[in-house]
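Q: Can someone sanity-check these two? First one:
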Amino acid sequence: MSQNVFFIFQMNSLSYKIFWRGYQDEEDLLRRCAKVVCGSVQRRIWHREPFNLQKAPEGQDHVLEGRLHFGEDVNDEWFAIGLLLRISAQIKDVVIKLEDEDDGDILLIEAADDIPNWAQEPDLADMRTYLRHGRVHLIPYNPTTPALLTPLPNCLPDLKSAVDVVAKYSRITEASKDVQKVIVDRVEKSSLESTNHFIHVFIPEKAAKLLRHSPRLVSAFVHSFLELNGHEARECRPEDSDVLVKSGVEMTKCLYAMLSSKTLYPNRKSSWQFPPDQRHPDFKANADGFKLAVGLNAMMKCLQSNLRSGSEDSLDLFLNHSKLQGDDHGLADLEEALGACENDDAPISPPLKEADSDSWMNFNAEEFDRLLQKHFGETNDSRIVDSLEMFLNRESDLKGVEEDCDTPDEDCGTEEVQFKVDKFQDAFESLFERLSSAKIDAEMEDELKAANLTLEDGSADVVNALNAAAGADGPMKTFLSSINK
């Protein structure tokens, strides 16, 4: 079996550091942070791994640190940002620095429409965004007054200095109300129940009991199933002796979409058979439950081949696997669920709640246009065309075009380039008629003058260059020959 079935991808990660000015008791701060976020962390179904915090290595300026691998579900990243905002709001003198390890400053990216122009330049905005008092802070940058005596850095600040500035001058560094609203709205969106999806499944009783005691195990089942190849998946099909029960399972929409992306059916000789008609109400419940059961068996099989010793039972295998993963933050909840399952004789009750519709997975062009309109507002096609034409007439430096005008009618400081195609074509046609000869006669000069061109001020050099280019092999000869034709 593949050795990387349970490998947690080190991509799409959020790293964060917590500074506590004037205090050095890391254990006390860790305990206080856990008290603030523990309930939310335990109740959430995390996509890859739960929010975590640990003491920083010795010699660091920060006290606590953490790293969340949120994988394919960006809602986990924003939920974690919400937890960090809550910590900064409820614990005095805390300053937090966070960063998306792939995209950079995720706060500035989300609030890009509302931050100052200078903050859109990564080299200027670096090391200037923090969390304090439950708010986003952006250290101002003022390059126009370098001689002004100010505690605010006008160059790239080091981390310790930036934290001190935010702690001492919070009223100055606090970002605008628009930025605060954008961030809070995005955090609240990640916390909504609408990000979850409830389904009915037929599943082995032992798996149903595990999920009843620890609902977030569904994430491990889904990922272990998806990371199997075809041969491994067939080897991990449930046994015929497994007792199936109908249960309700809640997972994130991201997990459900990933689970639905892969198809697997039981062996034809298996006692677990799906309804022949895919439109049957129980077909989806059987298909989803079968895949979750395969994911559970894959975890069991992998652990048995690597960890099993003597009479160690399956629940111990699960616990040992969690320790190997280093998932200390969810370990207490998982250990409690595994221990309870050993003597759990309570039957699995059928779900009372109806399964959620998965129509949200069907997306068409019209719905996409409605989403764009909702996000960006009404758009005028003619305005877009006019803006594009005006943009193409602008000049840019290495940082791109800076557009100061709100409407195409305003003067943006540029002049329209006048290019008379007919006169240009006539002049070149006259030139190429005589490219075979080495001299320019008076008649040609008259024609050039009639086309508002002269041989003065270096124009003769241009003609000589054209003569030379027409006689030499290369792309220029091909180009000139095509025009001459």
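And here is the second, same format, sequence then tokens:
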Amino acid sequence: MGCTGLTSITLPEKLEKIDGGAFFGCTSLKHIEFGSLNISVGINAFGNLEQYDEETKEKISNILNPSQKPKTDEPVISPSILKAANDGSEWAIRSIVETYEKNGKKEIPQCLLEAAKKRKDWAIKLVAQKYEKNGDYKEAVKWYKKILRV
């Protein structure tokens, strides 16, 4: 995030996932050499797609499935919120969860799961509520039990 001096990067062949916002703010980045095109990609992983050369744009297009392609009406998660969420900030994580919900995404953001794993009750409750909302009651009960320390 925010690597303004980076113009080109080569990603390893064994790379399986690019986190959301990974290249957001890397405004000088023009070319990405992908070791593999079989990569899971988080929200806004590449930032502004217009900044890349044609070869990179084409590869990014091949990686993104239709549900991950940026929509013009989709709110962007700012790098500062991503950083705060990765640092465990409750307000930032709740903001990302809200953004996911507004965009119809059912998956639970990784930053929320990480906060819950650190036994933060508010995060555990939010994870349980997300599973319950998604109809996965067995998983929801498992997380609710963690709040009760059962």
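A (reply): Looked at the second one. Strands lie at 8-10, 17-18, 31-33, 40-41. The chain has two domains: 8-63, 79-148.
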